[in-house]
Amino acid sequence: MSIRLKSALLALLAVAAPARAETVADFYRGKTVQFVLGYGPGGGYDVYARLVTRFIGKYIPGQPNVVLVNMPGAGSLRGTNYLYNTAPRDGSVIGAFARDMPLMGIMGGNPAVQFDPRKFTWLGSSSSSLNDAYVLFVRKDAVTRTIEDALRPGGAPIVLSGTGEGATGNDVAVLLRDALGLNLKIINGYPDSGAMFLAIDRKEVDGRFVGLSAVRSSKPEWLKPDTSMNALLQFARAR
User: Fold this and answer.
1) How far apart are CA 222 and CA 151, in angstroms?
2) 129-156, pLDDT tens digit by residue?
3) How much of the chain exceeds pLDDT 70, in percent?
4) Which of 1, 42, 180, 230 is most open to solvent, judged by the fewest CB atoms within 10 Å of its CB?
5) Are residues 143 and 237 in contact, defined by beta-carbon separation less than 8 angstroms?
6) Are residues 112 and 138 in the same domain?
7) What beta strand segments (E) does 107-228 contain?
8) CA of 16: how far to CAs of 3, 13, 45, 147, in Å?
9) What is the CATH number of the domain that holds 220?
10) Residue spans of beta strands (DSSP E) within the chain
């Protein structure tokens, strides 16, 4: 058999040989996975996300590098829309957003919602209402600083910071305002939890609804006996 014929046969065999299917480990090996967070740095969600990105790569086949991308805006709606409409759908981008975002998508009525929550793949959660709670914290030097003050007709409102519709802190405040008649005024537009904590420190607002776990990680002094904050009510956990 001539050398030319042998080469042709080898080339033919190489073309005909079935390609080995790429495994999950092959896909992720050497890659960088982006973890898109719908909030800025410094808040409770940011703490969770940094913890996840630090370790999750070890448990993904191929052990890719995982980096955090903060994408604050509209109570994490901006990041949620990005994940659904723009981010690659090959597993190289994952993310986290406010727990009320899926409900916003199902209820409809908000033209800014550009995603179908039923088409997301749920990976897990860092907390739940079974072991966490949303608490109304108000500065002790605020004009309205008790539940009785907030229920008094004609009294001054408790001014709360918020990010936007769909964030749990916002939605819980609206629910309790409408259901219990609490005199609450919500100032939306803060980009993330860190900005809302800072607004309270600067006395721009009186307080906020915030997850107990976020307070423990970002503002543990609020839970001390000599705190400058009042915890007026708790939403969720029984104790």
Assistant:
1) 24
2) 677 888 999 999 999 989 999 999 999 9
3) 89
4) 1
5) no
6) no
7) 133-139, 158-161, 184-187, 207-211
8) 20, 5, 51, 77
9) 3.40.190.10
10) 32-37, 65-70, 93-96, 133-139, 158-161, 184-187, 207-211, 229-236
Euclidean distance between CA atoms 114 and 78, whole angstroms: 9
List, in sequence order, every beta strand (DSSP E) within 12-170. Answer: 32-37, 65-70, 93-96, 133-139, 158-161
- Both tokens of 186, joined, read 């919500």
pLDDT the model gives residue 5? 43
Asked whether the beta carbons of 39 and 45 are under 8 A apart, the reply is: yes
Half-sphere exposure in the Cβ direction for 212 (13 Å, CA): 18
Helix (H, G, I), strand (E, B) or coil at 133: strand
Q: Could you tell me where the beta strands, DSSP code E, fall in 9-58?
A: 32-37
How much is the pTM? 0.69
What is the rounded average pLDDT of the residues 152-168? Answer: 87
162 in any annotated domain = yes
| Whole-angstrom distance, CA of residue 7 vs CA of residue 228 | 83
Last residue of a domain, one of 58, 93, 119: 119
Pick the last residue of a domain from 97, 119, 141. 119
User: For residue 126, is it within any domain?
Assistant: no
Per-residue pLDDT at 20: 63
**Average pLDDT for residues 180-192, to the nearest whole number?**
90
Please calculate the CA angle 112-114-32 and round it to the nearest 5 degrees: 120
In tens, the pLDDT along 3-48 reads 454 444 444 444 444 556 789 999 999 999 999 999 888 777 888 8
Q: Residue 115 in contact with residue 80, Cβ under 8 Å? A: yes
